[in-house]
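User: Need the bound-state model for adenosine-5'-diphosphate:
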Amino acid sequence: MAQKQTLSFQAEVAQLLHLVTHSLYSNKEIFLRELISNASDACDKLRFEALNDPSLYEDAPTLEVRVSFDKEAKTLTIADNGIGLSQQEAIDNLGTIAKSGTREFVSRLSGDQKSDAQLIGQFGVGFYSGFIVADKITVESRRAGLKPEEGVRWVSGGAGDFEVEQITRPQRGTSVTLHLRDEALDYLSTWKLKSIIGKYSDHISLPILMRKEEWQEGEEGKGGEHVLSDEWETVNQATALWTRPKKDITPEQYREFYKAISHDYEDPLAWSHNRVEGSTEYTQLLFLPARAPFDLWNREKTAGVKLYVKRVFIMDDAEALLPAYLRFVKGVVDSADLPLNVSRELLQESRDVKAIREGNTRRVLAMLEDLAKAEKDEAASEEDKGKYARFYAEFGSVLKEGLGEDLANRERLAKLLRFASTASDTVSVSLADYKARMKDGQEAIYYITGDTQAAAANSPQLEIFRKKGLEVLYMTDRVDEWALSFLHEFEGTPLQSVAKGQVDLGKLQDEAEKKAAEEAAQSFQPVLARLKDALKDKAQDVRVTTRLVDSPACLVVTEGGMSLQLARLMKQAGQQAPNQKPVLEVNAGHPLVQKLEGSPHFDDLAHILFDQALLAEGGLPEDPAAYVKRVNALLV
Ligand code: ADP
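Assistant: Bound-state model below.
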C-alpha cells in the first residue's frame, strides 16, 4: 500500500457508528475502559505469541499502556506496545465487525434512542466507542515482527468511510488518538482521567502510565498551575484482579471487571471467586450475566471463559472449561498446572482441564441454587428475590440443554427448572413446588406441550385435569420436549404428558366413573368401528376417552411417541419427523358425537371431528379446503 486509500465501512459498522454518536452520550466515559481493554488484550496477545517467538518483544519487553493528552491539540491518546495491527488487520478489524449476530443486532435497532442505547450496550461497541467523545480518530500501529516501514495510519471521522496509509513506525503496538469534540474537552485533565481509570481499569494487570503532574508557582502575584512533567507514573494497581484476596476487592470492582472482560454494559447478576486447591490448583472467577447476548443460540459459540496460565493470558472462549449448556457464563480461570503452550487440542485431553471443567460446572450450579434459594427467602431483598426469575427468563432454555448433556448433574438441574402451569401464569413453578401441591392419590407430574402458553391452556386434553383440580405444567419452550425426554421422573415421581397414551388417573377416578366410562365404551363399539374405518388414513386408532369434558374429540399420540407439536416443529425446520398417525379420542357424552350414529353424513362428521381436534391443538387439516367444504355443506 503505497498511497493513501479511502475505504468504506461495512454497512453494519456505519449504522453502529451513527448510533454511537447519537445515542450513547449518557455514559460517555466508558470509551476509556473499552480502549484500555483493547490495549490490554493486544498486550495479552503479544505475550502469548511471544511464548513461541521471543523476538517479538523486540527491544521493549515491558508491556504497558500509556494515556496522555495534549490540551492545545485537544487530543487524548491511548498507546500500547502490544501485538499491533498490520495494514490489512487495520482495514479488517477497524472497518468491519466480525462478531456473529451483528446483522440481527442491527435489524433490531428501532431508531428510538433510549432503547437503542440499551441494545447497543448489550452488543458492545468496543473500539467504536471512541466516537462518543471524538469527531475524528487516528490510529497508528505496527504489528510486532513487521518492519518499521510496514506501519499503518488509519483515520476516520466516524461517518461512512476511513483512510489508511502506510507509515514508518519504529515502535511496535498501537496508539489511538481521539480528537475530542468540543463538549468532551473535560477529558483533558489528569485528575479526571485518573479517576476514570481507577474506576474501570484498576484491575488490568498491565501498568497504565500517565505523565506526572507538577505544581508550578506563578510569577509574582499570579496563581500557580499544574503542568505535565516528562516523568511517567503508574496510575492503576496493575495486578490481575482475580489474584487479589477476596476481602480486598469491592463489589464495584468485581462489577467493573466483569464489564471489562465481557463488554457488557449491565451489571452481572452474580459472581463467584475462589481459589480451588487439591490435585489441580486454579483460581476461578465466574460471572452470571443479567442478559442473554445476541449470539446465545449460535452453536459454534463457545464459553466466555478466558484461560490464563500463571497470569499469562492463553486464550479466550476456552470451551473446554465449561460444558456448552453453560456457555453464557463469563469469567477467568487461572491455572498453575497447565503448560504455557497449551493448545485447544491439548485442552480437550488434559486431566487437569477436566477437573477444572467439573469444578466450574459445580460452582455455576451452586450460584444458581443460591439465586433460586433467595426466591423464597423472606429475609432476601426484593431485588435478590427476583434474580433467579430474571436469570431463567434469559437463560432457562439453554440451561435445559444440560438435561441431555450433563448426566452427572441431571438431578441438580431438574431442581432448577421452572414452568408456568394451570396454577401459575408466570414461569415460576419448580418440580418441587408441583410435588408439594399434588393431590392425594396423584401418581404423576402432568405436563402438556404447546406452541404457546395460550394454546396449551386451551387444549381439550386439560379438561378432565381441570375438572379434578389437578395441576398441569405448560411446556411451551421449543427445547422442552427434547429436554424432558431425558427426565423421566423427579424424585421418584414420573413425568407424564397429558397428550400421550391413555389417561389413567388411577386412584383419582372413582369406581362409578370408571364403570360409566366402560359402559359408554361398550355401547359405543359399533360407532367406533365405523369411525375407524372412515378415518383409517388419518388415525391410528379411535377410542372413547374420559379425558374430555366439554370438547367432542382430541388427538393423542401413543406412549413414547413424539408429540404432534414436536413433529410439526421438526417438519417446519425441514427435518424428517416420524410418520406417526395420532389416535382420535372421542367424548361419548358430547352431543356431536352422539349425533354420529344415525346421521346420513357420518363420513363428513367423522372427518370434521378429526380435523377440528387437529385445529384445537395447533395443527392444520391436511386438506383445509376439503374441511371447509364439509363444514359448509353441513351449515347449509
Ligand atoms: P472487540 O475487541 O470486541 O473484538 P473492537 O471493536 O473493540 O472489538 O476491536 C476490533 C478489533 O480491532 C479487535 O478485535 C482487535 O483485533 C483490533 N484492535 C482494537 N484495538 C487494538 C489495539 N490496541 N491493538 C491491536 N488490535 C486492536
